[in-house]
Amino acid sequence: MTSQTNYKRILLKLSGEALAGPSGYNIDPAILEQYSKEIKEVVDMGVQVAIVIGGGNIFRGVSGERSGIDRVQGDYMGMLATVINAMAIQSSLEKHGMYTRVMSAIKMEQVCEPYVRRRAVRHLEKGRVVIFGAGTGSPYFTTDSTASLRAIEIEADVVLKGTKVNGVYTADPMKDPTATRYTTISFDDVYEKKLNVMDLTAFTLCQENDLPIIVFNMNETGSLLRIVKGDTDTGTLIS
Ligand code: UDP
């Protein structure tokens, strides 16, 4: 661990949608490039980085259901979509000189390693960025739940949820111009005020295991590094 940070190991959750850039679909090379640079700054500090990436830019189980695809089938399609995103990030991180492993909750040995907790921890200890693909491997879950679960399993110090908004607000800042941002808030307050941080399964997992969450804007240059360095005015800390 470096003296510049309190974090030894972080789990970074990125949504698939964010990876798509303004179009909302597919993978935007400019976003990949930006994310890789931001992640490298943190890796270079000696922080161990694990990543969970969503699949919403390619496929979501629920939307599949609306188009006539069975929910469970759609969820598996969504999980496979996360592997595509994980591979894209892997490739980009390696281009920027980082060592990486993709570990999938659904076995696909020609493409990536199967998820084995002890191996994931070993990779992290060796300084490799570990990207968890295929969600939890089970339908009816989300990649937010995957982020909470994997973070607990690998004993990460914090879940950093990168979004398009720079924290948790009193109301939706896109709709309500008077909304203000919390710099810190308790799990109980988030729950009581029904603030939208993560789905309840993901949120409860963190709460029950005393795992703090920081919500921040991953598209704001330098914010990931600032958070890792302990800047309490970037994002919202939920603990
Ligand atoms: N999914 C799933 N189980 C998991 C994780 C994901 O079934 O453990 C499926 C689910 O259909 C979800 C899709 O994968 O809609 C993509 O994940 P998510 O919607 O969480 O991606 P994001 O919104 O972060 O882009």
UniProtKB/TrEMBL annotation:
Molecular function as annotated in GO: ATP binding; UMP kinase activity
Coiled coil: none
Broad EC category: transferase
GO biological process: 'de novo' CTP biosynthetic process; UDP biosynthetic process
Annotated keywords: ATP-binding, Cytoplasm, Kinase, Nucleotide-binding, Pyrimidine biosynthesis, Transferase
Compartment(s) where it occurs, according to its Swiss-Prot or TrEMBL record: Cytoplasm
Span of domain Aspartate/glutamate/uridylate kinase: 8-217
UniProt note on regulation of activity: Inhibited by UTP.
Record: residues binding UMP: G55, D75, T136, G137, S138, P139, Y140, F141, T142, T143
Reaction catalysis annotation: UMP + ATP = UDP + ADP
GO cellular component, one term: cytosol
Pfam families per record: AA_kinase
UniProt: ATP binding residues: K13, L14, S15, G16, G56, R60, T163, Y169, D172
Record EC number: 2.7.4.22
Known pathway: Pyrimidine metabolism; CTP biosynthesis via de novo pathway; UDP from UMP (UMPK route): step 1/1
Protein name per Swiss-Prot or TrEMBL: Uridylate kinase
